[in-house]
């Protein structure tokens, strides 16, 4: 349990902020669709992520499954254990109210774009993802050190 807490702290310590001010509902929908388009979804989990169904947070409840909203903004994405494969995309930085991103028990890589993810966001990842993240950070640090 301590190991998971330490890994979560390590992940959060290395995450920087890149916020988009006043993202619109359309911006948030576009960000979610960009993420969806970057995922292999064999069980059609994200079928409801479609603007034909309206915008994700346009009503009192989220119209798109696995999304939670507050004041018409996405605050949580819960995709744990959905058999998804792919990568996070920088567009998720447009979700300015996002507080939680659960991608545990999937094959979703977060490491190419770790810099743009907002600070103070809780990210649930697997131990393997955390190990890969640590390796990516170490590799990045070695490259930076090599330039000096």
From TrEMBL:
* Keywords carried by this UniProt record: Kinase, Leucine-rich repeat, Receptor, Repeat, Signal, Transferase
According to the UniProt entry, its GO molecular function terms are: kinase activity
Task: List the InterPro entries.
Answer: LRR_dom_sf, LRR_N_plant-typ
Note the superkingdom of the native organism: Eukaryota
Sequence ranges assigned to domain Leucine-rich repeat-containing N-terminal plant-type in this UniProt record? 26-70
Record's signal peptide: 1-23
What name does the UniProt record give this protein?
Answer: Leucine-rich repeat receptor-like kinase
UniProt source species: Striga asiatica (Asiatic witchweed)
């Amino acid at each position: 349990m301590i190991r998971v807490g330490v890994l979560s702290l390590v992940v959060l310590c290395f995450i920087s902020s890149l916020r988009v001010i006043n993202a619109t509902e359309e911006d948030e929908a576009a960000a979610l669709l960009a993420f969806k388009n970057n995922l292999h979804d064999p069980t059609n989990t994200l079928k409801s992520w479609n603007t034909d169904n309206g915008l994700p947070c346009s009503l009192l409840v989220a119209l798109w499954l696995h999304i939670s909203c507050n004041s018409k903004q996405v605050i949580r994405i819960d995709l744990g254990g959905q058999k998804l494969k792919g990568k996070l995309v920088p567009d998720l930085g447009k979700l300015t109210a996002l507080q939680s991103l659960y991608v545990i028990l999937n094959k979703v890589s977060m490491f190419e774009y770790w810099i743009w993810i907002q600070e103070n966001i809780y990210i649930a990842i697997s131990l393997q993802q955390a190990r890969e993240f640590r390796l990516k950070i170490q590799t990045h640090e070695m490259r930076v050190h090599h330039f000096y």
